[in-house]
């Protein structure tokens, strides 16, 4: 409220300095006894109209930007002198970010100025805005550099507002990945869902015609998020949509199709159908072997998943064979300190546990933990997985105290990352309760 009143006072001062151009009596009569919002809008419009029609339109159009942006962002919205005028009238704010001047319409009036445009003009201006953000983002993404979080947010926002859904998919993928690096898993899910809800059959046909990878990729990513929050059946719906797009766009021998088959397999595994999962994993493996040869990391991923299916089918020896094939590829590709190597150590540890050797299992789990701590720090879900597995090994070795210590760490990480109602958090809590019951009575 204080900010709004301050803005109104500034505009009164501007009018007072140039009182010859204003009908002060008429102005006083118009705002007398009115609420602050009305006063702000009325003063803004009176000042803008006094400056001229070009400035008034520029003020409305430049309200498209919800965050401060450099001056060049306004180039297609009006003459550069109009931005300078807006700053002088305090209708645009100026601030320095990273040694570059940034500008935006004063927040207390921005939304109401924007709302004065009609729907057609809004859509046109949103398109200009998303293209400005896209130029910056594409340059950074092409160089494998991390773009600014809020720029990704704005690109998605403006693309959706002008109905460019395929572009929204592209930047939502990057933003979702960014969110997950910040452990914002639910936010990532909600973002992807918001964009996916706008994917119509016509958008799918466009993606097929243009061989646009981003629509299917967004659907796959959303499927993974949905599955991670405990709904693999829903995930299959998204994966099968992605598969239909990729089959139509690329044919049945393409690596993108292999990814779709792999994801569908993982969902079936989560639905406790390892035999069906293995069918899809083997389809994915056949495509990737033909595409990449037998030394590629994608092939290692397929070996891992087939191994997990064999483990679910109660054949840990067969599982270990596939895990060790995968490990050999990852070690050759990445060296011995990569998270994919940690994942394989975990898998091999699990196989040893199933084979009745918890001490051997613990060795592999501890190797995995050392890698993941170095890669991610101590708050990451993969680190929680490692602690949970080490706890299970200690329990099998008759050490419930050490089991509780490790699984408590796992639970705390998962609760912070996903919340207490997430399936992985619930599973860790269940393990913790079991192990605590075995503690010696004090």
Explain the layout of strands and helices.
Layout (H helix, E strand, L loop, with lengths): L1 H16 L6 H8 L4 H16 L1 H10 L6 E2 L9 H9 L3 E6 L2 E6 L1 H8 L4 H24 L6 H13 L3 H17 L3 H12 L4 H10 L2 H16 L3 H19 L4 H16 L3 H19 L4 H16 L3 H19 L4 H16 L3 H19 L4 H16 L3 H19 L4 H15 L5
Antiparallel strand pairs: 1-3, 2-3
Helix pairs in contact: 1-3, 3-4, 3-6, 4-5, 7-8, 8-9, 9-10, 9-12, 10-12, 11-13, 12-13, 12-14, 13-14, 14-15, 15-16, 16-17, 16-18, 17-18, 18-19, 18-20, 19-20, 20-21, 21-22
Description:
75% of the residues lie in helices and 3% in strands. It has 442 residues and is mainly alpha-helical. It has a domain of 113 residues: Orthogonal Bundle (Arc Repressor Mutant, subunit A). Helix 3 crosses helix 4 and helix 16 runs parallel beside helix 18.
């Amino acid at each position: 409220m204080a900010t709004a009143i301050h803005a109104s006072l500034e505009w009164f001062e501007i009018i007072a300095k140039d009182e010859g151009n204003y009908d002060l009596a008429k102005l006083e009569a118009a705002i007398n006894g009115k609420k602050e919002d009305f006063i702000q809008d009325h003063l803004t419009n009176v000042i803008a109209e006094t400056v001229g029609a070009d400035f008034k339109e520029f003020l409305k159009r430049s309200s498209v930007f919800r965050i401060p942006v450099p001056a060049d962002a306004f180039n297609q919205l009006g003459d550069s002198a109009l931005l300078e005028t807006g700053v002088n009238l305090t209708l645009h704010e100026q601030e320095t970010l990273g040694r570059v001047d940034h500008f935006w319409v004063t927040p207390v009036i921005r939304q109401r100025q924007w709302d004065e445009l009609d729907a057609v003009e809004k859509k046109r201006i949103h398109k200009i805005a998303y293209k400005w953000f896209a130029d910056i983002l594409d340059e950074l993404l092409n160089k494998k550099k991390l773009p600014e979080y809020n720029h990704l947010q704005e690109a998605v926002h403006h693309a959706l507002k002008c109905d460019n859904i395929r572009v929204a998919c592209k930047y939502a993928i990057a933003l979702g990945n960014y969110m997950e690096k910040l452990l914002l898993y639910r936010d990532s899910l909600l973002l992807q869902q918001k964009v996916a809800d706008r994917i119509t059959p016509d958008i799918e046909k466009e993606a097929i015609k243009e061989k646009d990878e981003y629509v299917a990729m967004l659907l796959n990513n959303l499927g993974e998020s949905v599955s991670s929050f405990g709904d693999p059946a829903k995930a299959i719906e998204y994966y099968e949509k992605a598969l239909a797009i990729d089959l139509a766009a690329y044919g049945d021998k393409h690596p993108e199709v292999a990814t779709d088959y792999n994801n569908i397999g993982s969902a079936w595994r989560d639905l406790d159908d390892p035999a069906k999962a293995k069918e899809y994993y083997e389809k994915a493996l056949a495509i990737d072997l033909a595409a990449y040869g037998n030394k590629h990391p994608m092939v290692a991923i397929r070996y891992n998943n087939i191994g997990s299916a064999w483990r679910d089918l109660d054949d840990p020896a067969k599982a270990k064979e596939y895990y060790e094939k995968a490990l050999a590829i990852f070690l050759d590709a990445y060296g011995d300190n990569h998270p994919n190597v940690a994942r394989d150590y975990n898998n091999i540890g699990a196989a040893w546990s199933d084979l009745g050797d918890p001490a051997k299992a613990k060795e592999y789990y501890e190797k995995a933990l050392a890698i993941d701590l170095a890669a991610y720090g101590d708050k990451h879900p993969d680190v929680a997985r490692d602690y949970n597995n080490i706890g299970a090994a200690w329990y099998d070795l008759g050490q419930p105290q050490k089991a509780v210590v490790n699984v408590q760490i796992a639970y705390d990480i998962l609760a912070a990352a996903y919340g207490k109602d997430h399936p992985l958090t619930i599973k860790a809590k269940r393990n913790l309760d079991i192990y605590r019951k075995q503690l010696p009575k004090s």
